[in-house]
Amino acid sequence: MDRRDFIKLTAVTGTSAALASCGNPEHQLIRFVPDEDITPGIAEWKPSVCPICSAGCGVNVRVMDADVRTVRSGQAGVVRMNVAKKLEGLPTDPISRGGLCARGQAAIQITYHPDRLAQPMKRDGARGSGSFKPISWDEAIAELVSKLDALDDRKALAIVTRPHRGNRDALFAAFAQRVGAPAPIAYELFSDDVLRHANAASYGKAQLPTYDLAKARYVVSFGADFLGTWGSVVAQNAAFGDMRQARPGVRGKLVQVESRMTTTGASADEWVPVKPGTEGVLALALAGKHDIADAEKITGVPAKKIERIAKELADQKPAVAIVGGPALAHTNALFTATAVNELNKALGGELLGFASHNAQLSTLSAQPFAALADAKLLLVDEANPVYGAPKAWKVREALEKIPYIASFSRFVDDTTAYADLILPDHSFLESWTDAAPESGSLDAKPISAGPVMKPIHDTRATADVLIAVAGKLKTPVELPWKNGEELAKSSQPSTVDRRQANPAPPSAGRQPTEWTDPHFDGAASDYPMHFLPYASPAFGDGSTAHLPWLQELPDPLTSAMWSSWIEINPKTAEQMGIADGDLVDVTSSQGTLRVPAVVFPGIAPDIVAMPVGQGHEHYTRYASKRGANAASLLAPVTEPETGTLAWAATRVKIARAGDADGSLILFAGEKYEKPHDHETR
Amino acid sequence: MSHVSHERLTADLLRPLEQTSWRFYLLVAFLGSIVAMGLGTWMYQMYMGFGMTGINMPVYWAFYITNFVFWIGISHAGTLISAILRLVNAGWRRPVTRCAEVITAFALMIGAMFPIIHLGRPWLFFWLMPYPSQRLIWPNFRSPLVWDFFAISTYLTGSLLFLFLPMIPDFALIRDRATGIRRRIYGVLALGWRGTTKQWHRLETAMQIMAIAIIPVAVSVHTIVSFDFSMAPVPMWHSTMFGPYFVAGAIFSGIAGLIIAMASLRKFLHLEAYLHPVHFENLGKLLLMMSMLWAYFIFAERLTTWFGNDTGEMNVFYVTQRGSFSPLYWTMVVCNLVIPFTILALRWLRTIAGCVVASFSVCIGMWLERFLIVVPSLSHKYLTYSWGHYRPQPVEIMITIATFAAMTLLYTLFSKFVPIISIWELKAGDHPSAALYPAPMHEHKLGETHA
Amino acid sequence: MAHKWGMAIDQDRCTGCGACVTACHAENNIPTVGASQAARGRAMHWIRVERYWEGEFPDVKLKFRPVMCQQCDAAPCEPVCPTYASHHTAEGLNAQVYNRCIGTRYCANACPYNVRFFDFFNPEWPRPLDAQLNPDVSIREVGVMEKCTFCVQRITAGEIQAEAEKRGVKDGEIQPACAQSCSARAIVFGDLNDPESAVSRLARQERGTKLLEELGTLPKITYLAKQTQA
Q: Distance (Å) from the C-alpha of residue A681 to the closest C-alpha of chain B?
């Protein structure tokens, strides 16, 4: 008897047994024969690579058997499979060192998400409505092939991805190049490209630095939330812990310079609030290269404090300065980054190094999506620019006009809702994955890992799909790899240089260490507040908002869950009669958002901050139509040299819009440990 | 007040049993439907899950425990009034005792429902009982909740006895006047009472014993209920004075409940000849005294807390006196102190109507007092990050309302089947038999205000 | 000698990232209650990272403190449970026996740390999220209390493995999910009866205190205060 007959026999006997036992259709599930070895109750640990951010942590996955509902040949049934149960850091991995961040822990929910696309989908309604109907892989691939073949001009094929995804970048770059299309547009909202540019000039390496914090005595961070959301967070946390308490009698000091308190700021010994965009002047002043009195005028930091920190930096060695985050999200970001590099040079720089692999430089023009206007066919992979790009770039409008859009997304998100065809990828646990950590450890090397479990849905590895599609074109295109496994295991050239696609505009002839005022969108008279969107510890730039554990994770600083909010200084809030939860209208030149307020002591009276990540129109049942999208208020201000979005350069005005409506959900009941301590008798 | 003849007395007090107006049926139907809705709501809560209530982290007890303590508190009126007044031979107690004892019995039954209603898995409530279980484990006798179980069941048993014993002669009276099935039922209930001297003597002895025994039981019950709170390290719960405080509060609310019950009976069963203004005056004075006592406890607690300035306790102090609970707190003070004091201290206001108004005020105030003991403390414990708030949900409100309806319904039904005023005791008050009372004792007669 | 499990939490290392919270959910099958239930105060974070502000802008500070069941040796939650659902084990853990719990919630009121959580409804995991559930941890039904167990399933598994290999449990071999996931290594778990274990050595540090020590609960978690620079 072959397996097919066996399954049929099981199906028939199973069904009749079920029918005999009860009439409940739930019990008429067919139990398929497992197609792998199952050792019940015994766990196996397998390596994988976390794809949530670009750090590339090595992950250890606990795999055990479980029942999984599945559909085979149109039959609903259940099968016993070895499935991932828990993610942990891989102890031998130099980046994760056994630890994992909250988003990494939650990544397992991608595989088991109830709204994950289980098979290819074809648009079944108006463009952008998000309604799709299932189709087979054969149909889907055939359709994409025919659409590609129908393109007269291959230059009209546009590809939108996000950067820093290891060999997946190379896959799409190779596909574009060999098919004759322009290089993919790799966009992310919180880009560190300015720092890479500055490092290329300062150190000859267009790469994010790796900081040996464990050996540091003194660290000054300018805007970089390196313990929360910036850089290689897990590795940086591990090094920070060692910096504090791993050396008997020696404890490193952290000074955090930023406009809004982050978890890094909370962990710091000293928190130094600065006026937005002035971090670079402070760095130069600390390096002895800018007059301290003038620095006080510009930054708002008292001169005595600048002097003291400068002295401490000189005395307590080794010391290092870090820069990132909002400090590099201004129009003068290149100046700021270069200034901090100058400070590091003055400090000696022995704690600043570069991992051996991979400088990734992508220079986007000031309007990276301009090319979409001419596109006739768009491929979208792991990108959500409808959500994360400023409205003024008109990504949504461009997508509405592109005749055909295909996405490899695993979920229907704001951008994939505009697709005509979805060819869902596996989740990372079901697939060959790789990462090429750019920073985090000097011992970092590219890593790859195979699937830890069989796919639970009828999805296919995008590499395999793209390779197959390329091979099926009228003039077949051969890619350098036969399948996803080969791709993951291959090592790529260390620089993926996309500069030829969008040449950078010529520099204005300014010296990089000459102080440049940051420019903001909106006149201060009309828009009196600075608007600071920030990467959410739970959602990053919004890409993990669909995971329920992360929605319910209380925000470290506000304890908010399932919410959007705007952070307002207590005195400002009191003046405007705003209490926790009250609704506030936040208006920039791009529009207005109505969000509940959180009274936030760690921010200046003229700055308001809002986490990025909520406000998706489409993103599964957990994130759809929840909260507001901070990115939608951003004006298209860019840093002139690199073209990166200056996302901290938007000004807003705020107005109280109403009483609390219950949309702000806080886990904590109180902000202070001893709320009545200030009352004397 | 002139005496009524014994024939008239019997006729008046048995009339509710013998005549039923349409108003009775309407009232029972109305109350019954509310009670049915309450029961249905409870079934709904059990079916849908306890999450239908407003309970959350950290306010894990709220309405149901408030009701539990409130009703157990109300139950103190009956027995204590009845027992103490019997022991000191206060004559004016005679028309009052059964009304009071019935309140105790029903309030206890209703109150005892709440520990079951508030359970997460109420179908397992019997695990609180000490029986040789298949789990090979006894209940945890260190737990105040298990003490509650014993205390309440003891008190309930004692109260039912204390209620039932003096009903025997009245059952006999009805039996003798009844025919058919009524005769049979009341005959059973009368336990073969013939009214012999020996039987009277035995009855009186038994009631003396019960009167003495029930007082410590009553005191212990509410003390043990107070231990539910004071044994936990919760700010403003962990207080050494909770025992006496709760007992005083229980007597306070119990007297209020009794006044309301008596006033209602007087009006609806036309018992003006038997329940005189002086009864209400006397109870009113007791109520005033308990109001003073309650105020004393509150003052002592608040002053001690404020003076001590313990951080945890002051958080609760502030939130009740001037924070989010302050409207309820000050309402409670007005209801428990200001209104009763004003009405009951001024003789010209101390009428029946005045006493009833004061009593309603006290009932509201005492319910609020229970609520303000439970919820502000739980929502403001030691770690401020975990502070929370509570909002009652429809299921809790419905069940609370249903218990008031149930109390009224049970009372109404009781007064339909048993004379609400003890007939033989009223008669005995007029003609004390030497066999019943020790000879030298002189007793107050109805209407007399001095010895 | 029997183990006595304890923890040391270093507030100088903790950066408030919340990985411990998510890891605990993943390991212990904790239900995600959803937005409307979370708004009603029913989110079930067996471990939570408390945050407290101090001061006023610009001299403002924020402090993090991870709090989970302190496994008190004089636990106030134990004597008040009428059915012995909350009881002390020989290894010093406060065990919560779901099957014995009838849901009086007295233990949660008595706990001064607010670390006990109640199942207000039967938990739901929309398929296939249920495939992720840890088979070593029971699913709790509506009406029972639950709380941090120091990942007792991992402790038991570690002890069984050690016994099978005829050796003692090595210090650091057993890691509750929170300690395992912490990238700053702020949470250390181990045997307080072994004076040389990492947790014992950390517990002896001068900057170690116990939370709400004045209440006499004898908690087994030592909090190492954030140090200030000399």
A: 10
Question: Residue A224's closest CA among A352, A324, A343, A319?
Answer: A324
How far does B389 lie from chain A, in Å, by closest CA? 8
Neighboring chains of C (3 or more beta-carbon pairs < 8 A): A, B
User: Which tens digits make up the pLDDT trace of C36-70?
Assistant: 999 999 999 999 999 999 999 999 999 999 999 99
The encoded tokens of residue A374 equal: 């001419």
Find the CB nearest B385 among A668, A674, A676: A668
Partner C contacted by B37 (CB < 8 A): no
Question: Would the CB atoms of A672 and B379 count as touching at under 8 Å?
Answer: no
- A208 and A274 in a single domain? The answer is yes
Burial class (CB in 10 A: 0-12, 13-18, 19+), A589: middle
- Res. C125: pLDDT tops 80: yes
Q: Is A153 in the same domain as A269? A: no
By the CB < 8 Å criterion, does B381 face chain C? yes
Residue (of B366, B398, B399) closest to B113 by Cα position: B399
Q: Which two tokens stand for residue B110?
A: 């209703």
Min Cα distance A159 → chain C (Å) is 32
User: Which pTM does this prediction carry?
Assistant: 0.93
Contacts of B380 in chain C (CB under 8 A): none
The CA distance from B26 to B30, in Å, is: 6
Strand pairing report for A607-612 and A529-535: parallel
In Å, what is the CA distance from B42 to each residue of B29, B34, B370?
20, 12, 22
Buried b (16+ CB within 10 A) or exposed e, B84-105: bbbeeeebbbbbbbbbbbbbbb
| Highest mean pLDDT of the ranges A666-680, B3-17, C15-29 | C15-29
> Chain C contacts of A551, Cβ < 8 Å?
32, 35
Q: What is the mean pLDDT of residues A333-337?
A: 94
* Greatest mean pLDDT range, B191-200, B275-284, B358-367: B358-367
Cβ contacts of B389 on chain C, cutoff 8 Å: 41
Name the CATH code of domain C5-224 (choices 1.10.10.410, 3.40.50.150, 3.30.70.20, 3.40.30.10).
3.30.70.20
